[in-house]
Write a structure and sequence with these properties.
By secondary structure, the protein is α+β, with helices and mostly antiparallel strands. The chain has helices at 3-45, 49-64, 80-83, and strands at residues 74-76, 89-92, 96-102, 108-115, 118-124, 130-134. It has a 6-stranded antiparallel β-sheet, with helices on one face.
């Protein structure tokens, strides 16, 4: 085997090792986030009108029990039924409740906004894509 061929093989092996050295930590770091985002998207896309109404009712209860003097209103504990949906956090804002599957680098969430007694439900799939689920 010629020395040129040996150099090419050694170079190819080094490149392969570098790719593996970068890819393994990358997927180890981001795979849980991607899995969380997928769980949220899948759930939000499956919601029926009846289930959306349950989310509105749950949010009304959170907003009714929020202390208006608390600033920022902040996060609430996640009940076990929402943990089974892989929801990690519930954020209360002045007129909305945000149910979070993924936060940080990217965001996947279901937001229930209250506006003058009516409600809007928004599925946030990531930072660039969202969809109004209610009203239709």
């Amino acid at each position: 085997m010629s020395w040129k061929r040996r150099i090419k093989i050694v170079f190819a092996v080094i490149v392969l090792l570098l790719v593996v050295a970068v890819a393994v930590p990358f997927f180890g770091l981001f795979y849980p986030m991607i899995r969380q985002m997928h769980a949220g998207r899948k759930y939000m896309d499956s919601l029926t009108d009846n289930e959306i109404q349950k989310w509105i009712d749950r949010s009304k209860d959170y907003l009714a029990h929020a202390d208006p003097n608390e600033y920022p209103i902040g996060a609430r504990p996640v009940p076990s039924d929402l943990k089974t949906l892989k929801i990690l956090r519930i954020d209360l804002r002045t007129n909305s409740v945000v149910y979070v599957w993924c936060g940080g680098l990217d965001h996947t969430y279901l937001t229930v906004n209250e506006k003058e007694g009516s409600y809007e439900v928004i599925a946030g799939y990531d930072d660039k894509h969202s969809k109004v689920l209610w009203p239709k």
